[in-house]
Give the backbone structure.
Amino acid sequence: MTTGFAAAGLGHRYGIRWVLRALSGHAPPGTAWVLLGESGAGKSTAAAALAGRLRPTAGTATFDAAPVDRRRVGWVRQDPGAVLDPRWPVGRSLLEAARGHRRTALAALDRVRLDADTVWTRRPDTLSGGQRQRAGLAWALAAGPAGLVLDEPTSALDAPLRQAVAATLKDLKASGMPLVIATHDAALARAVGDTVTLLYGGWPVEAGPAARVFAAPHHPYTAAWLLAVPRPDRPPRPVWLRPALPAPQGCALVRRCPFARPRCRADPPPWRTVGPGHYVRCHFA
């Protein structure tokens, strides 16, 4: 029996347009599964399905080997502060999430490293971006979830605040909570992820243990995408990534990949094993 989060063949479409296809993976207790990719990759749709906020068109999303129960899974959206009622002090929103248990609400603030004396009586619009982000996370935790799904938890934050959020997520993992994190932040994925799936055009293109994927990516898109991401030890490097829509047939990346061959235009690439728990979707990786 697989405990924690699991997806098997997960897919979703809006009308005739598929935005997510064939996603599989899992996050056992005390681990984080990171869904990594650029805008439009399908990671937010996958996160919503794993949080039980969206019914997928294909495949399954489960928590503790059962259909996702929204009462057991916390959902932190791209603007987590949006869950806080703008008319109320933060403390009142937290008490509502904690069903009136003040100690639980205070414990949630402590878990995200926010001082109750600083934020309890303040409205959300008076908080800094980092405080608002962490207060929204505290709101999700105050409900007592057994697992947590986060969509872009470090968006629009500067480096020190991203590090603070990463530290909070590590603490949650250490407590045994399973996490699913949808993000474009490769630094967060490196810091927190146990497994990572890189998505493009709705397709998973590479997946595996985070350390292995980052150290030795097999898919040309993964390698190029990681080089293009700024890191403290080096500036971003010019790579072959260029604007183009995913191709409607064959490999989704055929319009962007300089290594594409005729087979890539004709046949969808298979999901191949390239190492222990390491998979790639490419004919020639």
